[in-house]
Amino acid sequence: MLIRDLIHSSRGLRKNFAFSLTAISTIAMGIGASTAIFSVVNAVLLRPLPYPNPARLVLIESDLKARGVKDFPFSPPDFADIRAAANLLDDVSGIFTGRVPVPGDNAESEQVPSAFCIPNFLRLMGARIVRGRDLAVADAAPVPPGAPPAVSMVVIRYEYWQRRFGGVANIIGRSFDFGFGKAQVVGVLEPGFKLLFPPKSGIDREPEIWTAPRFNYATFDRNLVSLNLIGRMKPGVTVGRLQAQMNGIANDLQSRFPIKRTSGLTFRVEPMQDDVVASVRPAIRTLMGAVIFLLLIACANVANLLLVRSSSRSREMAVRAAVGAGRWDLARHMLCESLLIALAGGVLGVVLARAGITFLTSLAPERLPRLGDIAIDTTTLLFTAAATIAATTIFGIFPRSGRRGRT
Question: What distance in Å separates the CA atoms of residue 372 and residue 367, rounded to the nearest whole number?
Answer without folding.
Answer: 11
